[in-house]
Design a protein that fits this description.
Blueprint: E1 2-4, H1 7-13, H2 19-32, E2 36-40, H3 47-64, E3 68-73, H4 84-88, H5 93-103, E4 110-115, H6 128-150, E5 155-160, H7 168-181, E6 190-194, H8 195-200, H9 205-212, E7 216-220, H10 241-250, E8 257-259, H11 268-284
Parallel strand pairs: 1-2, 1-8, 2-3, 3-4, 4-5, 5-6, 6-7
Helix pairs in contact: 2-3, 3-5, 5-6, 9-10
């Protein structure tokens, strides 16, 4: 399936897009030939609107348009990991449970938790003991969020941003192993592959994908310039798309291919239409390598 990330709705309606905005955008997605889309709550202030009736309204409109939800991005949960005070607070755990409860039985396959850049405090005692404390708390809090969501039979994936406490692909694999070995573990932690974030983390993208193997549950497919953390249309930056897509196929990736393009509202239709056509051609092998 080929779909879109929440960037489609952000580009059309802004960061604070509403369930009504999503409903409005679904008919255009269908007309453009997309098969699926991602749900998202961008900020904490929108939670009540979505869980009270928003999810039901959007899911109903999706069925009418014969569109599938490929994942839910809990963007607002990144506020629980941005700095030391937020990390050591309890904020985000009960909120994760609220989302799990609201999505239970919705046919949404998994929830993505974005892990943002961590703001390092300006103090001298940033020694090994300090970082052990930070990593221990990060693992504890993330585990609590994951377990709260898994209680509702939903899988969980991470979206790793540059400079986060995860520390790249090896850090993610180590963290996933820790969580799978922990008491009460039900499923292995998944990975939501944002090609822009991954490239900005300065790791060889195809090598990173190969190391992740079966951990990849979903995608945010975007391009960037060098190691800049951008969301350009595929083909407008430095990502080697033919090699990346062939690697995903070779590894048996069975999830959706979801485009993530940030652009002006007036450009959304043209940008996403062209990007979808380009992606279809690349997946079918009809486009020569750049």
């Amino acid at each position: 399936m080929i779909g879109v990330s929440p960037a489609y709705f952000i580009s059309r309606f802004g960061n604070h897009f509403t369930p009504r905005d999503v409903v409005e955008g679904l008919s255009e997605l269908k007309d453009l030939g997309f098969e699926c889309f991602q749900l998202e709550i961008y900020d904490e202030e929108s939670i009540d609107r979505w869980v009270s009736s928003g999810f039901l309204d959007v899911l109903s409109a999706a069925r009418k348009n014969d569109l599938v939800v490929s994942q839910f991005v809990a963007h607002f949960l990144l506020s629980g990991f941005v700095d030391e005070p937020s990390l050591f607070s309890s904020w985000g755990i009960s909120e994760a449970e609220t989302i799990g409860e609201a999505l239970a039985g919705s046919a949404c396959p998994f929830v993505t938790i974005p892990i943002p850049a961590f703001e390092v405090p300006r103090r001298k005692a940033l020694n090994a003991a300090y970082w052990r404390e930070i990593e221990t708390r990060f693992s504890e809090k993330l585990t609590a969020m994951v377990r709260a969501i898994e209680e509702y039979s939903l899988k969980v994936a991470l979206e790793v941003m540059p400079w986060s406490l995860v520390g790249g692909i090896h850090g993610f694999l180590r963290l996933a192993e820790q969580l799978s070995d922990a008491e009460g573990a039900s499923t292995r932690l998944g990975f939501n592959l944002d090609t822009g974030h991954a490239t900005a983390c300065k790791e060889p993208l195809v090598l990173a994908v190969s190391r992740l193997r079966g951990s990849i549950l979903g995608t945010h497919l975007c391009d960037n310039a060098g190691h800049e953390n951008l969301s350009l249309a595929p083909g407008k930056g430095s990502v080697q798309w033919e090699l990346l897509l062939s690697t995903l196929r070779d590894l048996g990736y069975s999830g959706s291919y979801d485009l993530e393009i940030r652009c002006e509202p007036a450009e959304v239709h043209a940008e996403y239409a062209a990007a979808r056509e380009s992606l279809v051609n690349r997946l079918s092998g009809n486009m020569p390598a750049a």
